[in-house]
Write a structure and sequence with these properties.
Blueprint: H1 2-25, H2 28-53, H3 55-61, E1 64-70, H4 72-75, H5 85-95, E2 100-106, H6 112-117, H7 119-122, E3 129-133, H8 136-141, H9 145-161, E4 165-169, H10 178-186, H11 188-196, E5 200-201, H12 224-249
Helix pairs in contact: 1-2, 2-3, 5-12, 9-11
Length: about 250
């Protein structure tokens, strides 16, 4: 009887608590919402305390802010915005659990000199890294490779002075300007990568250039499928680049 009485008492106490909770929360759905709200409040508070106590932790865990400084190849000329190189690269990185805040600073028709001239407003303060994809229009227009080299050199110099990491995407000259021009132009990117000690992806259009199935009707700008190939090919270089940035932020 004592056991039964205890069980009854416990049951009555449990029922009393349930009634009290119902009266407090109104109904079960409201209770869940209130509890969830309380949980989120506590989580935000804990996160804020961790950030205050250890700013380095907050810095290390925030998304990497990347800017793709480029021309129509990164701007996504002829493609919907979601098919442009920076957007697809961001999605590919996120699929691997790499958080990035990506900005598409591609301007169709831009040369290396154009990218240099708009550098300050295209790359805002707080940027962690810049992927430089410029030079295709220089080569198509037959611009003196010395001018291209000087513009790209200034871009890298100014970004490094701002403590912003740089990754270069190389470009190759078309054959119609001759072997001498091609040799002078094609050497720009590996030379600068070595001089400034920055990572280089040797040829941005590798696996896509001159393939009619992967280019739009103009034969120059990649299709969405072409962009997928570029992203797949460049990923290891970008991941290594982001790894370096992460190390520097710790």
């Amino acid at each position: 009887m004592a056991i039964v009485s205890a069980a009854v008492a416990a049951s009555e106490e449990e029922e009393s608590m349930r009634v009290s909770m119902v009266r407090s929360y109104g109904n079960s759905d409201s209770a869940v919402e209130r509890r969830y709200g309380l949980f989120m409040h506590i989580a935000v508070l804990v996160l804020a305390l961790m950030t205050f106590a250890n700013p380095a932790w907050a810095e290390a865990t925030r998304p990497v802010k990347l800017v793709v400084l480029g021309d129509s190849l990164s701007a996504g000329l002829g493609l919907p915005a979601q098919e442009a190189f920076p957007t697809k690269l961001q999605k590919a990185l996120q699929a691997k659990g790499i958080a990035v805040d990506m900005t598409n600073a591609g301007v169709s028709g831009d040369t290396s000199s154009g990218g240099r001239d708009r550098l300050d407003w295209s790359v805002p303060d707080g940027t962690d890294g810049v992927i430089v994809e410029l030079g295709a229009n220089d080569a198509l227009r037959g611009i003196d490779p010395d001018l291209t080299r000087a513009a790209l050199s200034e871009i890298v110099t100014r970004l490094k002075a701002r403590k912003i990491a740089v990754m270069l995407c190389g470009m190759l000259a078309p054959p119609n300007y001759g072997a001498d021009y091609a040799a002078r132009f094609n050497s720009i990117y590996p030379d600068l990568a070595k001089k400034f000690d920055v990572p280089l992806y040797p040829f941005f259009l590798d696996g896509v250039a001159a393939d009619a199935k992967l280019n739009q009707a103009d034969g120059i700008h990649p299709t969405a499928a072409g962009v997928d190939i570029i992203v797949g090919n460049i990923m290891p270089t970008v991941e290594a680049f982001l790894g370096t940035i992460a190390e520097q932020r710790r």
